[in-house]
Design a protein that fits this description.
A hairpin with a 2-residue loop joins strand 6 and strand 7. The chain has five domains: 62 residues, no CATH class; 54 residues; 123 residues, Nucleotidyltransferase, domain 5 (2-Layer Sandwich); 252 residues, UDP-N-acetylmuramoyl-L-alanine:D-glutamate ligase (3-Layer(aba) Sandwich); 133 residues, Alpha-Beta Complex (Protein-Tyrosine Phosphatase, Chain A). The protein is an alpha/beta fold and 730 residues long. Helix content is 37%, strand content 16%. Helix 12 packs parallel to helix 15 and helix 13 crosses helix 19. The strands form five sheets. Strands 11-10-9-12-8-13-14-15 form an eight-stranded mixed beta sheet, sandwiched between helices. A six-stranded mixed beta sheet has the order 19-20-24-21-22-23, with helices on both faces. A five-stranded mixed beta sheet has the order 3-2-1-4-5, with helices on both faces.
């Protein structure tokens, strides 16, 4: 047992301390002294426990200030793992992870793929360590990316591309009486292609409404999308089958999305809350009569006038010896308030290729941001198609409203001053263009020459497509005579785009003292042209631009020249080159109904409105390019005083061809006997006669699926053949 030494009693006390306080201090000093002595024997911790002295107090009393320096740490002995990768191996692993095969993969995926290939470089953690050393770990994390949410929308790049339709309730004449208004709207032009008022909302009525409206506008297959909400008639089976049969795409509003048919909804807001009956005047316009004839009979009124194209009202024999003049059309324009002075006019003249050139020119100008009126002739289906704005045809009501002032004028005119059908249509076209405030009107001449109704419009730019022999009863039977006549339509000082390739035909046009002449092959033309499956690949040049490898959705070689002419005219009018994207968009979407148009029924049927010797020569050249060596059946019908034998000879009709002679419904049609005799005279292998154009086309199409059927001779023949051919396709 250890015995503590006796502590010497201390006589030290705190000054002023009582007896009890002094005893405490004495005890504390003795306690600390005992702890000091025991710490040498049993250690500091044991001594503090034995004496009851807190260890913190002990250490506080024995601290050294300042503290002595710490001893230097012992050097760490570096340990090298026996299986660690060498620097060269680590470089190879990093190169592997960043290689093209694995740069987008996580290390675990790379490790697994390498094991599948029987290769092992290092562990997954070692791969991460190597990547971490170079700051490449975060870049390799798998990041989930999602495409931005895009609100679906239909975009119309031109008229008759997207229509929207809906049915709304309209207040009737009495309380509680409501009508159902069916309305179609073209979202590009904001034009109303069709509307109908009915007592009920019905799928069968919707079927008839859509069928009639689409048929009236002659919509090409696979070009139109019809958008509607999810109402019963819109989603009905009958409407769906109709649109499928017409090759029209359907579109519906998104589920549970309000106001997803904004064009129809906004239109209805302007109609729905009008007083009873007021909405009808907004749709059809004011006024309901023309000279005592209801607007529904506007065409009957027009057909009461002389029509030189069809021979209606022309003297016996179908020949008018007196050349037309501009006296009557000028009077009509004065009656309408000189609309030609409010509309800049581009005149497209020439013998062949006018309609195609005019349509391309109008499309290019519209694609360049202009509001463009287009007036062409003749029509293939309905007279309304001659007059359009941005592809939208004039309605009967709009035509009647324009013609209304001319009815009173006609009552005061003498028989000699009575307007012709073409003069009335020309005046109506220019009047409508002025009312609609178009930026420019592209106008195709009729017969041509200084007496043509279109010559009175004061065109600032005249496009001459070609010079050939046509309308010999007015212009003569030589190309020079026709060039002199065509030049009469050029106002003095106008700009002329001359696409006639023969320089010998240029002097009559230069004699009009044009302010500028842009000539084919020198200033514009076709640099390269190659046929492809459904069109042509062409390179075109104009005074200010070159357009290489443009796809032209037209089949005939001369249509490439038409496109070059139209681009040159557009550049002159715009005073700048046409944008490349506009040229490609327009050329890629072109349709030229009845102009070297190929349809499979299932046998191939080619329709072209060639009507004179020059056009027949061009058609023969195009047929050799596309169908060389293919047996042909030629359905031909002609009009006017043209020579059928020269036409068939230029077309290349020979012993291997079957010719079916037919007759369009016009008094000016060439007699069938004369046409058949001409076919035999040129050596046709077989000749048949079918008075009706439709019967002739059906007979040719039913003969042999491998034989090419060529329908030609007149645009009036094409107009009667087109619905028959399309019915055969269906």
């Amino acid at each position: 047992m250890t015995t503590l030494p006796d502590a010497e009693p201390s006589t030290d006390t705190e000054p002023g301390a009582t007896g009890e306080d002094a005893g405490v201090h004495v005890f504390a000093r003795a306690q600390r002294a005992a702890c000091e002595q025991l710490s040498e024997l049993i250690g500091r911790a044991g001594a503090c426990r034995a004496t009851g002295v807190p260890r913190s107090s002990y250490y506080h009393q024995h601290r050294i200030s300042p503290a002595p320096p710490r001893p230097a740490p012992k050097p760490h002995r570096e340990r090298i793992q026996p299986r660690a990768l060498s620097p060269e191996e680590r470089v190879r692993v990093r190169e592997l992870l960043n290689s093209e095969a694995y740069v987008d993969e996580a290390p675990a995926t790379v490790y697994a793929k390498l094991l599948d290939d029987g290769e092992y470089y290092c562990s997954i953690s070692t791969m991460y360590r190597i990547l971490r050393e170079h700051g490449e770990v975060r870049e390799r994390r798998r990041q989930a990316t999602h495409p931005p949410r895009v609100k679906p929308e239909l975009v119309a790049t031109g008229p008759n591309r997207v229509w929207t339709w809906d049915i709304t309730k309209l207040a009737g004449p009495a309380r509680g009486v409501w009508f159902c208004l069916y309305v179609l709207i073209d979202i590009y032009s904001r034009y109303t292609p069709g509307w109908m008022v009915a007592a009920t909302e019905d799928a069968d009525l919707a079927h008839r409404f859509l069928d009639a409206t689409i048929g009236n506008h002659d919509i090409d297959p696979d070009t139109l999308t019809v958008h509607a909400d999810r109402g019963g008639p819109m989603k009905s089976k009958s409407v769906a089958e109709l649109l499928s049969d017409l090759q029209v795409s359907r579109s519906h509003s998104r589920p549970k999305t309000s106001n997803d048919n904004p064009y129809s909804e906004s239109q209805f807001k302007t109609l729905k809350y009008r007083p009873a009956g007021m909405w009808l005047s907004r749709l059809i316009g004011g006024g309901s009569r023309i000279g005592g004839v209801r607007r529904a009979g506007v065409w009957q009124w027009l057909d009461g006038h002389v029509d030189h194209e069809r021979g209606v009202g022309v003297a016996a024999g179908g020949v008018v010896s007196q050349a037309p003049t501009t006296v009557v059309i000028e009077r009509l324009l004065r009656t309408l308030g000189r609309p030609e002075q409010r509309v800049p006019v581009i005149l497209v003249a020439g013998t062949n290729g006018k309609s195609t050139t005019a349509r391309i020119l109008a499309a290019v100008l519209a694609g360049s941001g202009l509001r463009v009126g287009l007036y062409t002739s003749p029509h293939l289906h309905r007279p309304q198609e001659r007059i359009t704005i941005d592809g939208v045809t004039i309605t009967d009501d709009e035509l009647a409203a324009v013609l209304d002032p001319l009815v009173a004028d006609e009552r005061t005119a003498s028989e000699l001053g009575r307007p012709s059908w073409f003069e009335l249509m020309t005046a109506a076209a220019v009047g409508w263009f002025a009312d609609q405030r178009v930026d420019v009107a592209v106008v195709e001449t009729g017969l041509g020459g200084s007496g043509d109704a279109t010559a009175a419009l004061g065109a600032g730019l005249v496009v001459v497509t070609s010079v050939g022999v046509d309308h010999v009863e007015y212009f003569g039977d030589t190309r020079w005579d026709n060039a002199v006549a065509e030049a009469g339509a050029v106002p003095e000082g106008a700009t002329v785009v001359l696409a006639e390739a023969d320089p010998a035909m240029h002097p009559p046009f230069l004699g009009r003292r044009p302010s500028r002449v842009v000539t084919v092959d020198r200033d514009f033309g076709v640099a390269a042209d190659a046929p492809v499956a459904d069109g042509r690949t062409v390179s075109l040049f104009t005074p200010g631009a070159t357009y290489d490898d443009v796809f032209l959705r037209l089949l005939a070689p001369w249509q490439a020249a038409n496109a070059a002419t139209a681009l040159a005219a557009a550049e002159v009018w715009l005073a700048r080159p046409v944008a490349d994207q506009v040229v490609r968009a327009v050329c890629g979407a072109l349709r030229a109904s009845g102009r070297f148009e190929l349809v499979h029924t299932p046998g191939p049927v080619l329709m072209d409105g060639a009507h004179n010797e020059e056009a027949a020569t061009a058609l023969a050249r195009a047929l050799r390019e596309r169908f060389d060596g293919v047996s042909r059946t030629v359905v031909v019908g002609m009009t006017g005083t043209r020579a059928p034998e020269a036409f068939l000879s230029a077309l290349g009709v020979g012993a291997g061809d079957w010719v079916i002679c037919t007759s369009p419904r016009t008094p000016r049609a060439v007699p069938l006997a004369r046409l058949a005799a001409a076919a035999r005279a040129v050596g046709a292998g077989s000749v048949a006669v079918e008075a009706d154009v439709g019967d002739a086309v059906r007979r040719a199409a039913a003969a042999n699926d491998s034989t090419l059927t060529v329908v030609t001779g007149s645009l009036y023949v094409i107009g009667e053949a087109l619905p028959v051919v399309r019915a055969l396709v269906t």
